[in-house]
Amino acid sequence: MRSALRFLAASLATLAIYLLAWPVPIDPIAWTPPANPGFTGRFAPNDALAAIEPLLAGAGIGPEDVARDAAGRLYTGFDDGRIVRFHRDRPDAVEEFADTGGRPLGLDFDATGNLIVADAHRGLLSIDPAGTVGLLTNRVGDTSLHFVDDAIVASDGRIWFTDGSRFAVDDAFAMLLDRHATGRVLTYDPRTRETTVQLEGLVFANGLTLGPDDAFLLVNDSFSYRIIRLWLTGPRAGESEPFIEELPGCPDNITFNGRDRFWVAHFIPRTATLDVFPQTPFMRKVLYRALRLLPRPSLAHYGFVIGLDLDGNVVANLQDPAAGFPMITSAREFEGELLLGSFLAPSLGRLPLPE
């Protein structure tokens, strides 16, 4: 009996030492969460996203984004590294276009028909029309890129892209609990092959898009529940400001329809769990250690996409509390419908464009 008690005491002491003092990769800081409006008012609940229909069902898991080439063909990438090509009116005729060997996320085409890929594991990639994969950049200066998340090609040929944080895509809990603003926006210039940091100070630099005439860039700061505008032209060029703040979810990708609307997909709703122990960083270290011993908790699922006008006003609010199409990561407008990406779903989604 005594030996059993000694073993129990030793085990508890070891566990206490681990939870209180074991080295961890995070160094949390205190922070003050912004107000959370919840799903009220302009974000009132509805079931508009319940009508999503699957597209490419069974072709792969986690089609984060979708892009269209000059011939009208669509492309998406899966969690196993494959990128497939298909026609919207013939979604059963899917062909493998390329395999990055990593985790393809954001997609866009350059002026010469190369598919630009933000690959979370490998960096910023370019895939030629024959499907040959090439690395553009995975470093800036003397430092490596940790989590390349989204990319968009500007009219001058430069590629704007995000490096989400100093943590990799597979450790979102570290990013969430750490709270250091290590996310950034960069450009890659194909002419000079230079990679340049353009904006820093984002907790999780996620999706980005360019506004009309490339006058400004919008980038989602997911774990700050906001979208930042960086002015690129005019008297305020180089200045940044909030475009919309205090969102009730974590914005993922953002796309522009080329006319009057930005579509913003939110991959998870904002909950009290996301803002745990804001003023006690030590407890977040303890929590991170505990999460290493236990199965990682599932993030809350809630279908949520909004449309914003050119001034950041909410003009569309699409939801599905049941999250029949889970973890929506992107919404792109194509000819009367939205094509929706997901980090988890076994298909893309399609939805007739709301009035």
Order of helices and strands: HEEEEEEEEEEEEEHEEEEEEEEHEEEEE
Strand content: 35-45%
Biggest beta-sheet profile: 4 strands, antiparallel
**CATH-scheme architecture:** 6 Propeller
The number of domains:
1
Radius of gyration: 21 Å
Specify the helix fraction band: 10-25%
SS content category: mainly beta
Find the CATH superfamily: TolB, C-terminal domain
Please report the first level of CATH classification, the CATH class. Mainly Beta
Could you list the spans in which at least 5 consecutive residues all have pLDDT below 50?
A: none
Anisotropy-based shape:
globular
Please provide a written account of the structure.
The structure is a single chain. The longest helix has 20 residues, at 2-21. α1 crosses α3 (281-293). Helix content is 11%, strand content 42%. With 355 residues, it is mainly beta. The strands form seven sheets. A four-stranded antiparallel beta sheet has the order 1-26-25-24, with no helix packed on it. The chain has a four-stranded antiparallel beta sheet with strand order 2-3-4-5, with no helix packed on it. β3 (74-77) and β4 (82-87) form a beta hairpin. The chain has a single domain, classed as TolB, C-terminal domain (Neuraminidase, 6 Propeller). The mean pLDDT is 93.
Task: Please write out the topology.
Blueprint: H1 2-21, E1 53-55, E2 66-68, E3 74-77, E4 82-87, E5 90-99, E6 104-109, E7 115-119, E8 123-127, E9 133-137, E10 139-140, E11 143-144, E12 148-153, E13 159-163, H2 172-178, E14 183-189, E15 194-202, E16 205-210, E17 216-221, E18 226-231, E19 240-244, E20 249-256, E21 262-269, H3 281-293, E22 303-308, E23 314-320, E24 328-334, E25 337-342, E26 348-352
Antiparallel strand pairs: 1-26, 2-3, 3-4, 4-5, 6-7, 7-8, 8-9, 10-11, 12-13, 13-14, 14-15, 16-17, 17-18, 18-19, 20-21, 21-22, 22-23, 24-25, 25-26
Helix pairs in contact: 1-3, 2-3
